[in-house]
Amino acid sequence: MAANVQDAIMLLGDSLTQGGWEPNAFAQRLSYVYARKLDVINRGFGGYQTDWAIPVFEQVFAKQHEQQHVPKVRILTIWYGANDASPAPSPQHVPRDRFKANLSHLVQMVTSPTSAHYSPDTRIILITPPPVNTYQWDSRVFDVTKSYAEAVKEVGLKEELPVADIWTSIWEAAGKDEKSLSKYLSDGLHLTAEGYDIVFTSLIKIIGEKYPEVHYDKLQNVFLPWDSVDFANPRSTLGKRDAMLA
């Protein structure tokens, strides 16, 4: 496997995260602004909910004591709730209290010193699900999805983590009119480019305010800009650098 020389941003979530690679979506835009500084690792899995996220995260987030030379995850976003809020008896449904417990479990895998996945260098941002437009997607309940967005904020308060309140931001952008959500939701559940713009803007705002040391403007390129290379002896100046040591 090719060596990965850069630290990373990891995006954990469902189809809303998986869709982050769509044109002008948030993962693509993060990759652009963090180019040559942090890689973006998209671990979005369409249809998944938090019961299934836990065993997946155990496999995709390195155990620090076993992986001495694995690049660090500097920023982790956790974005669930859209599928957990599916009405029972859907197999995607996760009861609200268990949803909250699952989110806390995912967080504490990274933040607890007793966890095999403990990573004190990782900054975590939780993201709420967006509103649902039941005129487009009638298998969801508007107020239930809202309650799961509130649950994410409750977990953020409990775990002392910033939350990108996408539910409120999109709802207000739509003038608090459910039919007007079609500008931000392509099918009533998944985001349009305008919806993803709100996600990206919210994340960058949180990073700038809560984690300014990992804002892209504060980081240096892992490898020197071309005009800083020693042209007579290039190898001497082409060593990997820590993006954090700007």
TrEMBL record:
Domain of life, source organism: Eukaryota
Gene Ontology process terms (BP): lipid metabolic process
Molecular function GO labels: lipase activity
Xref: InterPro entries: Iah1-like, Lipase_GDSL_AS, SGNH_hydro, SGNH_hydro_sf
Record domain SGNH hydrolase-type esterase: where: 11-198
One matching Pfam family: Lipase_GDSL_2
Protein name (record): SGNH hydrolase-type esterase domain-containing protein
Entry coiled-coil feature ranges: none
